[in-house]
Structures are given as structure tokens and as C-alpha cells.
Amino acid sequence: MLGALDELPKPLVAGVNGPAYGGVGLLAVRGIAVAADAALLGLAETRLGLIPAAVGPYVVARPGEAAARRAVLSGRRLGPPIAGAVIEASVAALVARREDGEARAGLDAFFARRPAPWA
After folding, report:
1. Residues 12-66: tens digit of each pLDDT
2. What's the pLDDT score for residue 40?
3. Which of 95, 94, 68, 70 is nearest to 82 (CA)?
4. Does 13 reside within a domain?
5. When comparing pLDDT for 54 and 77, which is higher?
6. Total tally of structural domains belonging to the chain
7. Helix, strand, or coil here: 18?
8. Is the residue at 7 inside a domain?
9. Which residues contact 59 (CB under 8 A, 6 or more apart)?
């Protein structure tokens, strides 16, 4: 889904007004992201013992990508998009992390509504 949104031919505008812990990846692929003073952003995966691998390539690319998207609107040429190998590597890292004991403990704590062992 993130890849499809990131490759849309027209810029998208996203806004957040309040908690958006599960929406950081969506904000990263948007052409323009606007946040109100009440916005709260974060990568919730780390609180579960996971890595934000699915959104990682987009979140990391965001600072450079934002400038690139402005260049698109001006007609300037851009470099290549996020490589498929980077996305595949981040997904593989997430799968490996989910099988780790620490991640399992974090997920179990989340679903039991108790703090993770490291909290």
C-alpha cells in the first residue's frame, strides 16, 4: 500500500490533528504533510520490540523525498525512487525481528495491556 501511494502521479496532502502513532508511514509517503500543534507522531513498533521496517524506507527517505517532490512540481529532474531491494530487505528484517524472543514478549505485553519487560 505504501509503495502504491508513494508512486501516485499527483501529489497528496495529509494532515494530522491528534495521535498518529500508526500513521507515520502514511505521512512519510505524502507529498505534503501538515501537523497541528496537537499532533503526536511516533513509531509504535519500537514499543513492541519490533522495528518499523515496513515504513522504514519511506520514513528515512522523507527528508530527501520532500525536497524531491517540490522539484517534481517545478519540473526539475529527480533521481531514482526507493529501490525494491531496500523495501524487501526491510520486510525481511521485520519478519526476523518478529520471530525474536524480545519482540514476542513486547507483543504479548501489548495484547495483555501491560508494560513490556524493558519498560
Report:
1. 888 889 888 777 778 888 678 888 888 887 777 777 788 777 777 777 676 665 6
2. 80
3. 68
4. yes
5. 54
6. 1
7. coil
8. yes
9. 24, 25, 28, 43, 52
Residue 112's pLDDT is what?
94
92 in a structural domain = yes
Residue 31 falls inside a structural domain: yes
Q: Which residue has the cell 502521479?
A: 9
Q: What is the pLDDT of residue 61?
A: 74
Contact criterion met (CB below 8 Å) for 43 and 23: no
Please tell me the distance from the alpha carbon of residue 74 to that of residue 50, in angstroms, as a whole number. Answer: 39
Which structural domain range is residue 24 located in? 2-111
Residues 44, 24: Cα–Cα separation, whole Å: 9
Residues near 74 by beta carbon (within 8 Å), at least 6 away in sequence:
none
